[in-house]
Amino acid sequence: MKTIGVIANCSKVEAKAVLQRLAHKAGALGLRTLSCQETARMLPGCRTVEPASLARRIDALIALGGDGTLLHAVRLLGRADVPVLGVNLGALGFMTSITTDELEPALEHLASGKIKVSERAALECGVRRARKRLGAFRALNDVVVGWGRSSRIITVDADVDGDRIASYRCDGLVVSTPTGSTGHSLSAGGPIMHPSTSALLLNVICPHTLSARPLVLPGNANLTLTVRAAAKPLLLSVDGQEELAVREGDQLDIQRSPHGVRFIHLPDYSYFSVLRQKLQWRGSSV
Length: 286
Description:
Helices cover about 20% and strands about 40% of the residues. Helix 4 (about 65-75) links the parallel strand 4 and strand 5. The chain has helices spanning about 15-30, 35-40, 50-55, 65-75, 105-110, 185, 270-280; strands at about 5-10, 30-35, 45-50, 60-65, 85-90, 100, 115-120, 125-130, 130-140, 140-145, 155-160, 165-170, 170-175, 200-205, 215-220, 225-230, 235-240, 240-245, 250-255, 260-265. By secondary structure, it is an alpha+beta fold. It is built from seven helices and 20 strands.
């Protein structure tokens, strides 16, 4: 890997100092850096490129910030087969793989190719209103429909491969990938799924029943959500990055994308170690 893209949350206090360290180490290793305008201003020796052309000109992408920055970086890549390394500048940074203390060793591993790469599933979501297609979205974490301007509940029909699952009266629904299972879905009482699991997760937000439970579906399932009743404007949120207003009668078609996302890890990376450290996940006390 010789050309590295860099995307940073420049509002972080430590961003400037970390980017200067990155520039110094990358130069010593003979790595070229490319970025978009805001990050490039803080990264010495970096070439500035337009966001639309970044993915096709780099071998790997480094995202410095929290999970939001990483999700933004994934959006910039689109369907390009470029691996991403997350460097945590935030408080939680669950998806970011390394700390700033590990930045220099990580660049050395990138330069030598001694890295671990994990494949993460993504979702594709199409939105239809009558016969009109309103938009198409791609999500690494989740697709969420709900919220709005009042506290009144909504009714959403859920079907998988043409077979009715249920009609949910609730505040909203979350459809997540295994990567996204530790995000919004977890807060709504959903299970943790290992990122390599081939599955989709359907979870209900504040269901108006005692019987609703999170549902794990096959990875090749075609899920359809239809807003059957809504006394308020609703919001479709994709990875917390993109939003679309939806209303009664709108239909969401969700399935696994044929184009996943590749994450870069250091050789000693452990997913379960991340669970223990970031989510204070524990087994039985001894």
